[in-house]
Amino acid sequence: MTPESPASDERRSRKQGGVEIRVARLSDAEAITLNANLPGYRAGTLRLPFQSVEETQQWMEKPAPGSINLVAVLDGQVVGNAGMRRHAGRQIHTGHLGMGVHDDFTGRGIGSALLAALVDTADNWLAIKRLELTVYVDNGPAIRLYEKFGFETEGRLRAFAFRNGEYVDAFAMARVRM
Fold first, then answer.
1. Distance (Å, whole) CA 173 – CA 156
2. CA 55 to chain centre
């Protein structure tokens, strides 16, 4: 996120299928928190229940170096967000992705629009060769989305996280441009 004005954000935003993709602003913190606290959204992430707006504001105010944070806006409502953090040093060619979509807006192309924006930025602006992510093995829609963008499963991470009273596995997935 950058402290730029909404006018400069608009110059860099893009619409895809009626969904506007733009840089996340501090003023989006409440909407992002609302989405993150929804059961479906949260189930696909490492987030704990009852995340506060202040916690969201903290990571938005101090983004990791080389990170990009985007939101998807539909009819004035933030319906998804995604981010990419570029690694440093000998892994400068690598970025790690994370994303989520409001429970009521899944299956409508919002994840595709967010992922397309991140992949375009990685490929055409940052020369990132390797994009990686983790996804729970039971998140079929997300896995299909990632595969559509060229991500491949590289391994299974057993007992990756504790969710809903049990340990769940995740896939390590990556997209490597040759």
1. 9
2. 17
Domain ranges, ordered by start, for the chain: 6-133
Type of residue at 123: D
Which residue, 123, 49, 133, is CA-closest to 93?
123
Query: Tokens 């992510």 appear where?
Result: 133
- Tell how far CA 51 is from the center of its chain: 17
Most confident listed range (3-12, 58-67, 138-147): 138-147
- Closest among 133, 105, 106, 104 to 118, alpha carbons compared: 133
* Per-residue model confidence as pLDDT tens digits over 20-51: 999 999 999 999 999 999 999 999 999 988 99
- DSSP string for 84-137: EEE--GGGTTEEEEEEEE-GGGTTSSHHHHHHHHHHHHHHHTS---EEEEEEET
Q: What is the DSSP letter of 18?
A: T
pLDDT of residue 5: 44
What are the angstrom distances between the C-alpha of 56 and each of 12, 52, 61, 143, 151? 23, 7, 9, 26, 28
Please state which CATH number belongs to domain 6-133. 3.40.630.30
